[in-house]
Amino acid sequence: MTYYVTTPIYYVNDAPHLGHAYTTLAADVLARWHRRRGEDVWFLTGTDEHGQKILRTAQANCVGPKEWADRLVHESWQPLWEHLEIANDDFIRTTQRRHTDRVREFVQDLHDRGEIYQDSYEGPYCVDCEEFKLPGELLDGEGEYAGQKLCPIHKKPVELLKEENYFFRLSAYTDRLLAHYEANPGFIQPESARNEVVNFVRQGLQDLSVSRSTFDWGVKVPWDEQHVIYVWIDALLNYATAVGYNENPEKFGSTFPADVHLVGKDILRFHAVIWPAMLLANGLPLPGRIAANGWLLVGGEKMSKSNLTGIKPQDLTAHFGVDAYRWYFLRAIAFGQDGSFSWEDFSARYTSELANDYGNLASRVTAMVGGYFDGELPAATADGEAERAVREGLARAVAEADRLIGEELDFQGGILAVFDFVKQVNGYLTEQQPWKVAKDPSEEAAARLATILYTAAESLRAVAVLLDPVMPETSGKLWESLGAEASLGALADQRIQDAAEWGRLPAGATVTKGAVLFPRLS
Ligand code: ME8
Fold first, then answer.
1. Is 32 exposed, middle or buried, given 0-12, 13-18 or 19+ CB atoms closer than 10 A?
2. What stretches of 133-218 adopt beta strand conformation (E)?
3. What gap in Å lies between CA 421 and CA 396, rounded to an integer?
4. Tell me: the pLDDT tens digits for 135-171?
5. Mutation test residue for ligand 1: of 23, 50, 92, 130, the one with most atoms within 8 Å of CB
6. Where does the pLDDT of residue 134 fall: very low under 50, low under 70, confident under 90, or very high at 90 and above?
7. Residue 129, annotated ligand binder?
8. Would 310 be classed as within a structural domain?
9. CA of 130 to the centre of ligand 1 (A)
10. Is 46 left (phi over 0), alpha (psi -120 to 50) or beta?
11. Which residues line ligand 1 (CB under 6 A)?
12. Cα 43 from Cα 24, distance rounded (Å)
């Protein structure tokens, strides 16, 4: 079976900001990690292009909605993912025929099964969320919004909608969903998100409006073309249509359902309640896990396109580089919790952890192999207690990182496990003082010097493999400067399991002092 990972498909109402990149990066690291385990992986991302929000944005810009979506996809979203080295296997757009045709079939099937009925509905709607809200969750407006009710997420007025719509019998799934959460404790992550969903569903679910009839930018309801399918039903189905639902049984059978849907906590209910109910109604299997990330905050509020608080990832990568960017957000914020970005924090961590701890280790070791051994990696012939401790540290780091990143989606914990090992190797060098050993002309000292440098270089070989999913460019540079390719082959072919196997880098490898991994910040 394929390990199938997804991101949300993002609305193309505006260009991406740090928050979108955060979820996508986490998914990318997870996908790369599983590829490094030798698994067959499918990593999907894409864009959500229908609905009122996109339509209004396009109108405000005096272009048609499809033209607007094309522009944003080609000029903003896809170039950003390339820039950030996102290695997705597919990119789905909800305006593609491969998607819209299948959405119609899926909804027709629900209709045929008696899961959909017609009724009228009146209620507050947030266009930014594309969601009907419950009156109880709205906030009272103040200042310019005095007297109005506001969306709790966007802090903007909701609109009162009254429409004749089609409804999905979501309420009928309350008990089956609760039973599924109970039987599968890891279905929703983190624990706090799971509790929130369980409490919400326990109150009983209401049937869900699944069509809109006051505008037409969407997939038409097959049996009543006066309606378009509600944008969230359309969007959630991307996870099925992109891997061959009703089209390619072989691909679908080996890929669907997803092992992990990564989503922001704002859209958790859609994924943990509505999506599984849709699948149950259609007789399809449920995903393995819905993992919710917290929000990147600006001034204590969710960073958002709609509120114009988005910071562009390119503003940061221009200063810190792409790899440091990829590393920082996963390293600095515990996955699942909210976090804030600050230039000060990023700069401080870059300097102490990337440049001083990791970058310096690489440059010291490669420079010493150059200076003392003419760039030819010596063999370790005088192994002792200190070397054993390094080997044990590595075995621990590999096991920890694999469990934390690969299984628990604790990116921060996994990265820290590797960086603890980097610190251990730095400490080992400080203790062993190869620069002093080098001054001793005895044969014994020569063997010690060789052993120390071999141990440090071999440690770096493992670190390059372990950090490759997070910082692919840096690992590539290190791989090259260790001369690893000639004997071990391409970095892309290394396995996480290999990282722990001591002694893979052969004596005799040609080590060069490559470019500085993390240049000083200007
Ligand atoms: O909701 N912090 O699209 P969207 C962290 N089209 N993550 C953030 C964030 C922040 N400040 N802001 C956005 C939609 N995100 C729907 C999804 S899926 C079938 C349809 C991330 O463009 C986070 O993953 O509003 C959030 O869930 C997603 O962007 C919402 O993107």
1. buried
2. 139-140, 149-150, 159-168, 188-189, 208-209, 211-212
3. 9
4. 889 999 999 999 999 999 889 999 998 888 999 999 9
5. 23
6. confident
7. yes
8. no
9. 12
10. left
11. 8-11, 19-20, 22-23, 48, 235-236, 238, 263-264, 266-267, 293, 295-296, 302-304
12. 10
State the pLDDT confidence band at 469, using cuts at 50, 70 and 90.
very high
pLDDT at 72 (0 to 100): 97
Query: And the tokens for 431?
Result: 């203790």
pTM here is 0.96
- pLDDT exceeds 80 at position 12: yes
- Taking CA atoms only, the protein residue closest to ligand 1 atom 3 is 10
User: Taking the CA of residue 204 as centre, how many other CA atoms within 13 Å lie in the half-sphere pointing to its CB?
Assistant: 1
| Residue span of the structural domain in which 191 resides | 3-113+174-205+228-293
Dig out the tokens for 522 from the structure: 């200007």
The CA distance from 419 to 463, in Å, is 9
pLDDT at 419: 98
CATH code for the domain in which residue 386 is found: 1.10.730.10
- pLDDT for position 298: 80
Hey, is 83 helix, strand or coil?
helix
- pLDDT > 70 in the chain, percent: 99
398 and 419 housed in the same domain: yes
Q: What is the model's pLDDT at position 386?
A: 98
Residue 279: inside a domain, yes or no? yes
Concerning whether 305 is annotated as a catalytic residue, the answer is yes
Q: Is the pLDDT of residue 309 over 80?
A: no
> How do beta strands 211-212 and 224-229 pair?
antiparallel
- 287-300 confidence digits (pLDDT tens): 999 999 999 998 78
Residue type for position 338: D
The span from the CA of 371 to the CA of 365, in Å, is 10
